[in-house]
Amino acid sequence: MREQIVIANWKMNGSTEANRLWVEKFLALCGDLTCRTAVCAPFVYLPQMTALLKGSGIEVGAETVSTRAEGAFTGEVSATMLADIGVTLALVGHSERRTLWGEDDEAVALQAERLVATGIKPVVCVGETLEERQANQTEAVVLRQLRAVLERVPADKLGAVAYEPVWAIGTGKTASAEQAQEIHAYIRQVLAAKFGAAAQETAILYGGSCKPSNAAEIFAKEDVDGGLIGGAALKAEDFLGIGKGFAK
Ligand code: PGA
Prior knowledge:
- By secondary structure, this protein is α/β, with parallel strands linked by helices.
- It has helices at 16-29, 46-53, 79-84, 95-100, 105-117, 130-134, 138-150, 177-195, 212-219, 236-243, and strands at residues 5-9, 36-40, 59-62, 89-92, 121-126, 160-163, 204-207, 226-229.
- Helix 1 runs parallel beside helix 2 (46-53) and helix 7 (138-150) runs parallel beside helix 8.
- 2-phosphoglycolic acid (PGA) is lined by residues 9, 164, 169-170, 207-210, 228-232.
């Protein structure tokens, strides 16, 4: 059976004290959680998070990574550095990185390749804007974004694919369970065309205004293997509530 995963994406939120309280609450309440769990936090808090979560089984991830290996790239953080401090997964291609920081498909593919070279699993984010959906381009956009990465990363090195319709991120508008399943099944097809049977093992996560009240319905769909959670992951109780949404 495919692994079920929920990943928190804290984005540019948190503080030393808030993170400590979040972990304290999460660890106190997560006893009966059955799915795999990870928290992606800003770079500066990653050492704190790996220390706080050591031995808990909860993984620590980065929210992005440099396309470069090392050298004169002021402000950048490399995959090697992330591996050095115990990070095991990292997001690449989040729509905020693509649109606000101009990271294109080639950059996302390079980031994924750098991560894989250090043993970190990339979680590749893909998804269409509202205009693209309305123009019936959803599949074409997802295919383009995914293909770039699949050219460089083998199936067994992929952490997950996260389908995040841009119009659903932080807007309170969630894709319906049917809309999510339709694109997840398409993503599975694309993976299968490239990797064959191994595609059945790749987790495909849904992201975009996921909350405890809607997660169970979306996660119940055949090709939805978990979620990438933004706003609702800032509260440990809500993130837990989402993780408990697996009825499969
Ligand atoms: P959201 O964000 O849950 O706040 O919509 C999801 C994401 O951006 O990964």
